[in-house]
Amino acid sequence: MNTTNILLIPLLPLLSFVLLGLFGKSFFKTKAGLVGCSLMLVSFIIAVVTASSYFFSTGLQNGQYQQLKPFLMPWLKFANGLVIEMGLLIDPLSMIMIFVVTFISLMVHIFSLSYMKGEERFHVYYAFLGLFTFSMLGLVLSSNIFQIYIFWELVGVSSFLLIGFFYQKSSALAAAKKAFIVTRFADLGFLIGILLLSAQAGTLDFLELISKFTTPGDTLSSALGTTFLGFSLLSWGLALVFMGAAGKSAMFPLHIWLPDAMEGPTPVSALIHAATMVVAGVFLVARLYPVYAFSGAGFVHFIDDIGAFTALFAAVIACTQTDIKRVLAYSTISQIGFMMFALGQVPADLGAVHLGYTASIFHLFTHAIFKALLFLGAGAVIHYVHSNEMKDMGGLRKKMPVTHAMFLLACLAIAGVPPFAGFFSKEEILLAAWENNPTIFWMALITSGLTAFYMFRLYFSIFWNKEHDGHHHEKEGDIFLLAPLVILGIGTVVAGFVPFSHLVSSDRKPFETELHLQFSIAPVAVGLIGILLASWMYRKHSAIPENLARNMGGFYKAAKNKFYIDEVWLGFTKGVLFNLIAKPAAWVDRNIVDGMVKATGSGMEWISYRIKGLQSGKVQQYGLFFLFGIIIIVSVYLFKNVPWR
Amino acid sequence: MNLILIILIPLLTGLAILGLNEKHARTAALAGAIMQVVIAIGLYLAFTQERSIGNVFPILFEQQYQWFPALGFSFHIGVDGISVAMILLTAFVVIAGVLVSWNMEKMKKEFFFFLTLLGFGAYGFFVSLDLMVMFFFLEIAVIPKYLFISIWGSGNKDYSANKLALMLMGGSALILVALMGMYFSMPPELRTFDMVKLAEMNIPFSLQRWVFPLIFTGFGVFTAMFPFHTWVPDGHSSAPTAGSMFLAGISMKLGGYGCLRAATYLFPEGAHEYSGIIIVLASIAIIYGAFATMMQKDLKYINAYSSVSHCGFVLLGIGMLTKTAITGAVFQMVSHGLMTALFFAIIGMVYERTHTRMVADMGGLLKVMPFIITTLYIAGFASLGLPGLSGFVAEMTVFVGSWENQTFFHRAATVIACASIVVTAVYILRAVGQVSMGPLKYSSDQKDDARWNEKWAAVILIAGILIMGLAPFWLNDLVSPGVEVITNKLAGK
Amino acid sequence: MSGSTFMFYLLGLLTVFSALLSVTSRNIFRSAIYLLFSLIGIAGLYFWLDYQFIAAVQIVVYVGGIAVLIIFSIFLTQQSGEKLPPVPGGRIFFSALAAAAGIALVLSLMIRYGFASVADKASPTAAQIGERMLDINGYALPFELVSMLLLAAMIGCIVIALKKTETK
Amino acid sequence: MMEPGLYHLLVIGAVLFFTGIYGFFTRRNMISMLMSIELMLNSVNINFIAFNKYLWPDTLGGTFFTVFVIAIAAAEAAVALAIIINLYRSHSSINVEVAEEMKF
Amino acid sequence: MNEYLQLMKSELMVILIIFILLFIKLGKGLPNGTLLSLVQLLLLINVAVSFGFNETGRIFNGMFVHNELAGFQKGILSLAVYLISLLCSDWLKDHEHMPEFFMLMLSALLGMFFLVSSDHLLMFYLSLELASIPVAAMANFDLERRKSSEAAMKMVMSSALASGIMLFGISLIYGISGSLDFATIWGSLRNEPLHIMAFVFLFSAFAFKLSVVPFHFWTADVYEGSPVAVTAFLSVASKGAVSFALFNILYKLFPNLSAPWYTLVVVLSIITMLIGNFFALRQDNFLRFLAFSSIAQVGFILVGLSGQNNQVISSVTYFVLVYAFSNLAAFGVASVLRSQLGIENISQLKGLYKTSPALAWALALGLFSLAGIPPAAGFFGKLFLLMSGAAKGNYWFITIAALNMIVSLYYYLRIVRLVFSAPEGEQVQEVKILKPVGLGLVICSAGIVLAGVVSWIYDHISSMV
């Protein structure tokens, strides 16, 4: 595998961004989509080739996948050995990621051909998709913690642009701003974390950083030795970096931006807010996993608590939402929660197999596929009924059979029903949890039950329930719309059988995992219960949900209002940042700081008017001043110079 | 490379403009500006050429002429990497300014004359190696601004013009006193204003400790140092477009450059003595400016206040006294110069079409003026520090450099500075988003996009921003040797 | 109390009192006349100091010239016998204060300084004065300069005070 | 002390001088202001002569100064009177208070 | 005898011109225009004569001292007079007493010449009177204007008072030292109360002529009332001459009292700058404004005078030269506007640039130079004054001075703004610029631009001291 090929993977999408951005309108017009797709396709093929060659031929050297840096370019040298490098880091993680990213991105590109047809800013859309894909690929291939921060920001901004794509909707603007600012706030932590860690380690390169912080040495000892507010600098750094990760991956309490981000075009949600960008946080933690794992399990527990809580919390909210995309959004949050806490499952002795790590990446992989499928399916539905609301849907299974089938597959997968993809990955996660931390396991179990419930609630109320008339589309959608669904559907079926533990593991050594049937009974059962419950409530139109909601009362209301987290944040920004800081600052500036300047000016005017009487125009008075002047001067001198006075 | 050219060209251009009639003034101005760009780039090439053939002498292309020898002046000019960067910046901003004001109606001739005069002052300032020559050019660059605002300005222009001129002149008065103090406190045989000579001798600390703060504050006024920044919002908002571009783009950099070259470099011990205060003031400026910006309703005010915040980074970088931080400060000067000039240019274009600068009165303009708004986005992203654009490079360099200081105080200041990038994101997105997105508020929904001159102005500046943002190593290689000289002096080597 | 001493005091008193009267009297003619007396008294003092030449100049220029000039211009500008308006008290007070303070200051300083008089010699005769006046190493240059000044003054007076018959 | 000497003359001079100043400040009539000035000049002359007589009898400086002061006094008086007369033409009064148009 | 001619060449030249004019006047006379141009020509020659061929010498046993520097200073003064004769042509050419005016102005100039090069108290007194009495007469030359005669009255009265007080001081000095010759006096002066009083009495007269606060009150009224030509002469020539003379007084006559007079000069200069600025802030009458601004400038001259010996006189001389150019540019514009449009107020200058750009540029240059803004020469002038003051190491003083520069900037720039702003409503009508006026303005502008950046002028001056 040669470097230029790998470079092409991110650069081709960039090319499509530049081409379409500059000449899209004037030159390509409606062909823009095709340009984007073809470039993406090439990039995808190269990615597949690269990944497979890595995994199956070159990568594995004497029982361990090695980490390669085929390309490295110093980008900005700081003084003391700190260098921002633009590089490629080839290891199992990044390989899996480039596959996922290019694959989903390609699907979305194709899907959008029909979904976005006739949009005024069609070319811009594809340009932005290109930009995003480029940044995401750059992110996953980064060899340098600062490089990852750079692409991290780029990803954020392209998500901003895509969320705000329908720019004339005020809601889109609001959502885009919210997404950007919340993640930006999180990135602040990431940045400071980087500064802290890099200053401690004296390097920005991932591998060196990891080795410096995992092998005992003065770097590590100083990082652990110097403490601030009772925590070691290292845990501060990791916590701050995790803050960034949590922001991107919508961990509680920074999750608020993700549901609103659904304002963007649905394919975009599929790409960015389901499959790729939102898992960047997981990726980051996985990237630094050795350090997290090593840094004395202290901080890792925090990670898995957050993850598990987020998973449960989001699942509860998902059960109450009626906007199908929001349901999917919350389910995404919950699933990422799974991945996150899976990463937290560090075995007591670091030598042992880190099942959680593998499981988390595995789940990332499968989830990307079926969640993309769900979103695209939802997109198809929305495309069909022109609404996001469940109440406008129902009984679509006859009208759009393909979509229905694929959607069902995806639901089964996410519900963890064997033999679909979700089953395997979630299995491993639960297993890892079971081995390390039973409480987490139980939370996870409940969550997966809820997952099954709300997914099938969604499924039934879209495709079954009472017939909803008033849409007279004949065709379900053209080939571009359906092909991606089908492909992803196939993916959903087969993805589970990938021998993932052979590919990805914390120490990059392949290991064996076997299915523990007796263990997997419980999750599957919980899943089935959830499904049955959902079908009983939503398969036919009935009053059960309302009654249930009424009985649950306050809790239901709270859940439906997302437990008022948004309101809390809003209160914080409006109340504190604006009214308590910004307003006073502006006032002080105008009235006090500037006031002093004004005061000097007006003071001079005042004086000059007060003393004008001296110039009275009376020549005798002038003379009087003259004489008094002399007398005063002389007598001053007398008192100054003559001691005996 | 003869540096006299750099000073002479704008001067001759100005005279030519005065000589020509109303119609051809702008052509002459443009020609002059293009020449300046060519020369600036030529200078850059020559400079790198010299360096590549291994000329490590810090100052290149020196020239020295007798000038008031009786008083220890001498017309001594020369450049190092920092000045070259600044000269490039000036050339870019000047040509952009000329292009933007291409369709100036009122008193064209004088307008372009004063614009070129400003350029003249700036170039002279950046090449001068004698403190008094520096001072001379510094003051040359002040008064045209006054006339700019008071003649071509808008709004409460007389007040703003006075405030700007008086505060800046107040700053230079402090500098003047400090310079004289420095001169006469030295033993007669050592008295000189020549920076090269001064850098070689070591000035007693007792002198440094009162000269440094005066000089630094004096130049700080130009860079909107915290309590002395209030001329910025009024001045920028009342000035005509090209005026604000020059004000924010270059003349605030005069201050930063002076703080670096005249204060920190020549009085290192003083710098060490006062760095704490500088850092505190800079952090205040950064965060407080950012928050004050959040409350602004007028695009120009927004950009003006954000300039206060951004120039805070310059002072912070200088105050941190580490090589990286100072390099970052220089980066920030260049980057802020480019992006704020771009921002003001865009504001001018938008204003020309919508006849308002109030954010609340605009909306959805992306539909009617895609190019302009796209550029606005680029400017906005640059100023909120998006990677790939200049702002990011500069800010990150400052942060990393500041973090190099181990003490809690320095790191707290750095964290505060970092926090400002969030606030920046908030106000930039609020403004830009409101202007560009949402329901359209415009007289017609016909396209009314940039004209050729505006496009070129924007493109030139964007090119600068992108080059710096994508390939910072060029600028880094240019600047860091110059900075190293300064940091060596700071380290007492 | 020799005769000369008595003479001196007489002259001194004449000078001072007529001066005081001339600045206080509210009839301008009277004050002009008092001024005349005061000037004559000063001339007398010069005689007493036997500076005959100066005394002569004094009488010729002042008594004969300036005083007459002043009286003429009073004729030009004043109807006879009208009194000057009274002076506001504040002005008088301040002026008196200033004058008193001045006298106190000057005299105290001069007396405290203690000028030591030398045994008096013969005063210069008109002849000596004349020689020095026209000596190129003496006072020739000032002499010429004064002549220029008088010329200028004359021109000025003519231009200003000349009654314009052919006004435009 | 009764024997008249330098200081008696100096006292006379000082008194005359400040009498003149007093007059200058208090008189409303320009001509009488002029008279006060003449008094001042005379007092200065007395000083010169006195100094010349009692302290530096062998120089002629004081004497000559007196002569020239007298000459200049004449010139000054002439010009001043001319100006006053002209002012009288335009203001038809020589009271100083009529000439206070320009102020502040 | 030849030596006398050599050393007194400029004085003799002036006297010659005076008599030429006198004879022309007494003879059948000439039409005003020709006479004016003749006078201008003669004055030009005079400028040349006074600048060229200066030798050092001391004649009339110390009553007349001449050297290169004195020659240069006389040159500056005659240049000022020449420029005035050019710039005020509008007013002069149809003034019925033009020859007398020149005779008076020239005799005043003669007085200044002697003032500059006299080393003897008597000469000092005489030349000072010669330099002021004719000016008082000139101030009255607008015979019909009430203000003019009021100005003349105020001037003559207060200058009489001043010279009276100065005479008293001189008499004391004579009493103390028994001589009138600087060379012999200075040794016998000590830091004693009486000596100080004598000094203050003497100093006050110069302060009066320089219009240093609190001896300045006459200035504004006289400037406003008198003809522009006279005002210009007062504010440039007589100020220049007096400041040269003051240098002699301070450094040749009272070196032993330098401790006391230094503080006096510093304090007075601060007060002067402040008062000048404060009053100038709200003036609307242009000449009155210039009066107060020139008072503020005098404060700066005092800053320079307070300094270290060698730099003082060079910086002061240079400043006076620059100040002559700058101030005369402003006065030239003022005189053109007053005599053609009767404009006296600043507020009427609105939009002058529109109608007559040449005047506007000249005015702007002059004001910039007065405000001390580079590249105008005034910048260097003030800079050097400040440097000579700073040499004493009294930086608070310098700081105050520098801050005063800022205040003055405010009102100078205000006028420039008015001149360049384009008003909607009424604006200045067209004015026609006579050739001599144009020439004068060109000379002034050239001087303003070149005298600064071309450094050899200052180098030349400092080489002479």
- Terminus-to-terminus distance of chain C: 68 Å
Widest β-sheet, arrangement of strands of chain B: 1-2
- Helical amount of chain C: over 70%
Tally of alpha and pi helices of chain C: 6
Question: What Rg of chain B is obtained from the alpha carbons, in whole angstroms?
Answer: 21 Å
Order of helices and strands of chain C: HHHHHH
- Beta-strand fraction estimate of chain C: under 5%
How many H/I helices of chain B?
Answer: 19
Radius of gyration of chain C: 21 Å
- What is the structural class of chain C? mainly alpha
Which two chains touch over the largest interface?
A: C-D, 79 and 69 residues
Mean pLDDT of chain B: 90
Report the principal-axis shape of chain C.
globular
Helix content of chain B: over 70%
User: Could you tell me the number of beta strands of chain C?
Assistant: 0
Backbone shape of chain B: globular
Our measurement of the CA-to-CA distance between the termini of chain B, rounded to an integer number of angstroms, reads 30 Å
Oligomeric composition of the shown chains: heteropentamer
Mean pLDDT of chain C: 86
Query: Regions of chain B with pLDDT < 50 over 5+ consecutive residues?
Result: none
Low-confidence regions of chain C? none
Please tell me about this protein's structure.
Chain A is mainly alpha-helical and 645 residues long. Chain A has helices at 3-28, 32-58, 92-115, 122-141, 145-163, 170-201, 206-214, 218-225, 233-248, 257-260, 266-275, 280-287, 289-294, 298-318, 324-344, 355-385, 396-399, 401-415, 421-436, 438-463, 479-494, 500-503, 517-538, 544-552, 554-560, 565-610, 619-641, and strands at 60-61, 64-65, 68-77, 83-90, 227-228, 231-232. In chain A, the strands form 3 sheets. In chain A, strands 1-2 form a two-stranded antiparallel ribbon. In chain A, strands 3-4 form a two-stranded antiparallel sheet. In chain A, a hairpin with a 2-residue loop joins strand 1 (60-61) and strand 2. In chain A, helix 16 packs antiparallel against helix 21. Chain A is globular, with a radius of gyration of 31 Å. The mean pLDDT of chain B is 90. In chain B, helix 2 packs antiparallel against helix 3. Chain B is globular, with a radius of gyration of 21 Å. By secondary structure, chain B is mostly helical. Chain C is an all-alpha fold. The mean pLDDT of chain C is 86. Helix content of chain C is 74%, strand content 0%. In chain D, helix 2 packs antiparallel against helix 3 (61-91). The model of chain D has no long low-confidence stretch (mean pLDDT 90). Chains in contact: A-B, A-C, A-D, A-E, B-E, C-D, C-E, D-E. Chain C binds chain E through residues 105-106, 109-110, 112-113, 115, 136-137, 139-142, 145-146, 148-149, 151-153, 155-160, 164, 168, and chain E through 15, 18, 60-61, 63-64, 96-97, 100, 103-104, 107-108, 110-111, 114, 122-123, 126-127, 129-130, 133-134, 136-138, 140-141, 143, 152, 168, 172, 175-176, 192-194, 197.
